[in-house]
Amino acid sequence: MPVPVVGLIGCGHIGRFHSRNLRGAIRAGAAEARYVAVCDRDRARAEAFGAIVGAELVTDDAAELFEFPGLTAVYICTETAEHPALVREAARRGLDVFCEKPLARTLTEVEEMVGAVEAAGVINQVGLVLRYSPVLTVLADLMRDPGLGPLLTAHLRDDQFFPIRGHYRSTWRGVSSGPGAGRSSSIRSTTWTCSGGCSGR
């Protein structure tokens, strides 16, 4: 099997985590890949990121990253509003796709993205699948306890840490036009995961 040639679009907060994990997996021999290109709309941030990564291509233009010779896979770690167009373009080019959550602002956009990757036959994954998140596994155990009765409602205040430590105070979720545009989709996904996973389906 050919060695994957990987690029990353979006050198912000979440991009750093995925980049670190990818580099660590390559260094540890857990994954064989070439991590070759980074892109961010903030050129200075892309340059700083590229220096750490040792990227062969550093750009502020996603189209240039998509053109990298031999590229086979892309991480999409941009604002939610940018995900649909980038995923569709990656699929059109036959690139495997990892897209950070939330996928998109609307269910219609998500369905179009799913259609694009399925039609292209590319490998695809969504970041932050919460099925095995500690908060959901604890909730699942509680819901299965017959002595507690049926679940009537659930309210999650923090989707990143359990127990809640109070240090994750992001403001981006409230920006409906861009980065936090899919927060209701995230809630729907979490609800679906809990209802499917907690019931044992």
Automatic annotation (TrEMBL):
* Entry keyword annotation includes Cell membrane: no
The domain of life for this entry's organism is: Bacteria
Keyword tags: Oxidoreductase
Q: Where is the Gfo/Idh/MocA-like oxidoreductase N-terminal domain?
A: 6-127
Transmembrane annotation, as ranges? none
Q: What is this protein called?
A: Gfo/Idh/MocA family oxidoreductase
